[in-house]
Amino acid sequence: MTIRFSPIATSATSARLSPACPTPRPADHTRRLRGMAALVAALLVGGPVLAADTTPADQLKRWTVEAGAPASVERGKVFFNSRHGGEWSCASCHNTPPTTEGKHPNTGKVIPPLAPSFNAKTFTDVAKADKWFRRNCNDVLKRECTAPEKADVLAYLINLK
Ligand code: HEC
Fold it and tell me: What is the pTM of this model?
């Protein structure tokens, strides 16, 4: 699916659709009203699941393609539980196995289970997964995770049942 790239397309489209002329012709107006009705309908139908723009399997495919090699559940498990020379491992906050609620060691914030079989929401939002991978990898490894590392971790997480 290409939906994950839609924010760029959408803003470009709406920029093109908004007329520079302050008094739109009636035809424009009708078209815009119709567009708005369609948008409202889409929101009503898809409202609660708007954030869900992907699946764990699609995310695994994405990173495996980027990595150019198959993911490894075993490597993902070792990666997830290693401290990589720092203070924390992924398991420090997400538990091991990450099938239960975790707790942030500093803030005490409750962290929902990371393995998709134990939490239907994980890896269903591209932006969220990307954001947390970036933040958490920086916390644990002092750098971003590579595509092969993300593919391995996700293969490990999906494998937990
Ligand atoms: C210091 C605590 C901490 C550490 C260490 C940590 N995480 Fe997280 N992680 C969080 C929090 C908090 C969230 C957000 C949970 C939420 O609100 O849904 C999160 C969310 C995530 C998500 C988003 C899942 C989704 O909903 O799509 C991924 C992916 C993730 N973490 C991977 C990792 C990996 C991989 C590591 C190890 C490199 C790691 N985390 C280490 C705290 C941590």
Answer: 0.75
From the number of C-beta atoms within 10 Å of its C-beta (0-12, 13-18, 19+), residue 148 rates as buried
Long-range contacts of 101-106 (CB under 8 A, 24+ apart): none
Q: Find out whether the beta carbon of 81 lies less than 6 Å from any atom of ligand 1.
A: no
84 Cβ below 6 A of ligand 1:
no
pLDDT of residue 21: 45
- Ligand 1 atom closest to 106 (CA): 1
Q: How far apart are CA 17 and CA 150, in angstroms?
A: 38
Residue 135 near ligand 1, beta carbon < 6 Å: no
Rounded to the nearest angstrom, the distance between the alpha carbon of 126 and the centre of ligand 1 is 14
Nearest C-alpha to atom 39 of ligand 1 is from which residue? 90
**Whether 155 contacts 73, CB under 8 Å:** yes
2: tokens are: 């290409």
Does the structure show a pLDDT above 70 at 73? yes
Indicate if ligand 1 lies below 6 Å from the C-beta of 83.
Answer: no
